[in-house]
Design brief:
Distance between the termini: 46 Å
Oligomer: single chain
Number of helices: 5
Helix content: under 10%
């Protein structure tokens, strides 16, 4: 693996040298010819919204943002988003324990890490259309609740995004932008597939647009027996979205999403578990009123998320079944509004205000074991974000004031600059503060609870170089980052008793690189690489991560092949730390016999490597899925 990393870094250095030698009078921006292969290409100059609330070119945004588009999500064939994001986003890793499903509670997978910030601890924020979305009692996202077919695209802000999104965005923000309808009329799409270990996946959605009205509805069902005993998984989800243009300037949009899944925890290989089951319901709803004029645009958004969890912690051989099940409910609701104005040429000022209310209840025996008795918290925030373009420079500055019911006020600044050194070359520099408020579990639940905890903090510096070559058929981006965190909540022993304390600190630094190369009109190569140095290793985070994929689309056929290499993934830390190294190969072949029908076959781990991303939970060998996609 070390040799592969060194060769890859050497390749990067060679490309950088070539970029430096490139004549500054390169041709102006051109967009490659549109076809079935290029629709999902992620150009550096495309418009994004996650880092600024208003549309801005990725070239001019000082913080690094990765974008995963609709076609990549479709081709994955996965029900959930995270497997595709892990491949396409440098520095992002997600733990797994089987072919389908992640689960929750003990033995659960789906722990998201970005630059070493663990999403399972609530330090990576997931948003749906800009609204925070996670289990508020535990403060972390539920991996099985984020469905691929509901997303138009996903924008991942790598680095603190707290100035715009508040708590939990210490390590970054994953903004899931839901489906939109384009073009008049009705469009029905279905996918039916099956494969290894009795796995079945079904998807059906329909989009409709007429005049000022547009709507989208979709549903997914997935089940799998799993590759181990007692590793069954089943999920059912539904999503609906409707929008109406009140006039040329104002639009009203509403959406609702509901996911229910059941999962078994098989336990580790050395200690199998019985009756380790979960039954989870997650819901999300939103209502937005947007406006867009010549010199101003904005929105007011209302949202409400909820969850209902029933968990059987199971027992081991020789033990006894649990006398009571664990139950929890949680909710999060609020409103966020913002308005951006363009007072003069090249200038944009965005001001916003957020209100967030959240809480929940958790118990095992409602008479004797109540962990969170309908706890309620709130956060209020106001922010201003200024962008100013001066010739080839774009200056950014933002400031947020967050007020928490328990902690009082928290100031969060961010600043950055982007410089167009040449028509095809951009240099970016940013400094950002991140923070996270302790969650209800850390404050009130279980033995280590501590009501005196304070927010965690991080400070991150980013330097980015982006370059396009070969008439824009090759685009590349390299990022260097350095991050320091302090006040991190850790479990320490106080008078012989475990207690949550603001006792931790860390320094993370690393490199991220991504590229997209249109070799021919029907042949594309893309990939990404990340290196992360942690002064204090974290479980579920790799040091080196590399992914490269080749797509070839001759006529009615489409072939995809990808290689992912992981080096020094920490399965455990401490004196007896254990790490894992592995390389996975996957491939997909599809044929379209009719304009409205496509058949496909997909294989993962084709080299049948033995590997783990969680200690004691071996992943399956070669797995297959095959099916048909219908566009009616």
């Amino acid at each position: 693996m070390k040799q592969v990393a060194y060769l890859f870094i050497g390749f990067i250095a060679g490309i950088s040298t070539l970029c430096a030698a490139k004549d500054g009078t390169a041709a102006t921006l051109q967009t490659p010819q549109k076809n079935s292969l290029t629709r999902d290409t992620i150009h550096l100059d495309e418009v994004i919204v996650t880092g600024s609330k208003v549309p801005i070119s990725r070239d001019m945004m000082p913080i690094p943002v990765s974008v995963v588009g609709r076609q990549s999500l479709e081709q994955s064939g996965e029900t959930t988003l995270l497997p595709t994001l892990m491949q396409q986003v440098p520095g992002l890793f997600v733990t797994s324990r089987g072919m389908s499903g992640y689960g929750v509670s003990a033995g659960a997978a789906g722990a998201i890490s970005l630059r070493g910030f663990a999403g399972s601890a609530g330090r990576v924020l997931i948003l749906i259309d800009g609204h925070p979305q996670y289990a508020s009692i535990f403060g972390h996202p539920i991996a099985d609740a984020y469905i691929a077919s509901d997303a138009e695209r996903v924008e991942v802000s790598r680095g603190p995004a707290s100035v715009l999104y508040g708590s939990n965005a210490m390590g970054g923000a994953i903004n899931i932008i839901t489906r939109k309808t384009t073009g008049e009329g009705n469009h029905l799409r279905a996918r039916l597939s099956g494969g290894s270990y009795g796995t079945q996946r079904y998807m059906l959605n329909n989009s409709y647009r007429k005049g000022r009205f547009g709507g989208f509805v979709g549903g997914n069902y997935e089940r799998s027996d799993g590759h181990r005993k007692n590793s069954f998984y089943e999920s059912l989800s539904g999503f609906a979205k409707a929008g109406y243009a009140l006039n040329d300037e104002w639009q009203l949009t509403a959406n609702v999403n509901l996911v229910r899944f059941k999962a078994d925890n098989p336990g580790t290989i050395s200690r199998p578990m019985l009756d380790g089951t979960v039954d989870i319901v997650r819901g999300m709803s939103g209502l937005s009123l947007e406006n867009q004029y010549a010199k101003t645009r904005g929105a007011v958004n209302f949202y409400y998320n909820w969850g209902n969890h029933t968990i059987n912690d199971g027992y081991f051989e020789g033990g006894t079944p649990q006398p009571y099940l664990f139950h929890s409910t949680d909710y999060m609701g609020g409103v966020n509004l913002y308005q951006a104005v363009h007072p003069f040429e090249g200038n944009t000022v965005t001001g916003g205000f957020d209100v967030k209310l959240y809480g929940g209840n958790a118990y095992r025996n409602p008479q004797t074991e109540v962990y969170a008795d309908h706890k309620k918290l709130y956060e209020l925030a106001g922010y201003v974000f200024v962008q100013q373009q001066i010739r080839r420079w774009m200056l950014h500055a933002g400031l947020r004031l967050e007020h928490h019911k328990l902690y009082g006020n928290e100031w969060i600044p961010q600043a950055g600059v982007s410089f167009r050194a040449a028509p095809q070359t951009h240099l970016k520099l940013s400094v950002s503060k991140g923070f996270r408020s302790p969650n209800i579990r850390e404050l009130y639940m279980f033995v280590p609870a501590n009501e005196k905890l304070l927010p965690e903090h991080s400070l991150s510096y980013d330097f980015t170089v982006s370059q396009r070559l070969l008439d824009n058929r090759l685009s590349m981006e390299m990022n260097f980052f350095w991050t320091k965190g302090d006040n991190i909540v850790q479990v320490v022993r106080v008078e012989g008793r475990p207690q949550n304390q603001n006792a931790g600190e860390f320094i993370h630094k690393g490199i991220e690189f991504g590229f997209h190369w249109h070799i021919l009109h029907n042949l594309r190569l893309n990939g990404n690489y990340s290196y992360l140095h942690m002064d204090k290793p974290i479980t579920g985070v790799p040091r080196n991560k590399l992914y490269t994929a080749l797509t070839y689309a001759p006529g009615r056929f489409t072939f995809n092949a990808g290689v992912q290499t992981i080096e020094k993934l920490y399965l455990s830390t401490g004196e007896k730390a254990r790490t894992s190294d592995y390389t996975l190969v996957d491939a997909r072949a599809a044929y379209r016999p009719l304009k409205w029908a496509e058949v496909f076959v997909k294989g993962d781990n084709l080299l049948s490597r033995s590997y783990e991303t969680m200690l004691g939970f071996p992943m399956p060998g070669v797995t297959w899925m095959a099916g048909v996609i219908l566009d009616l």
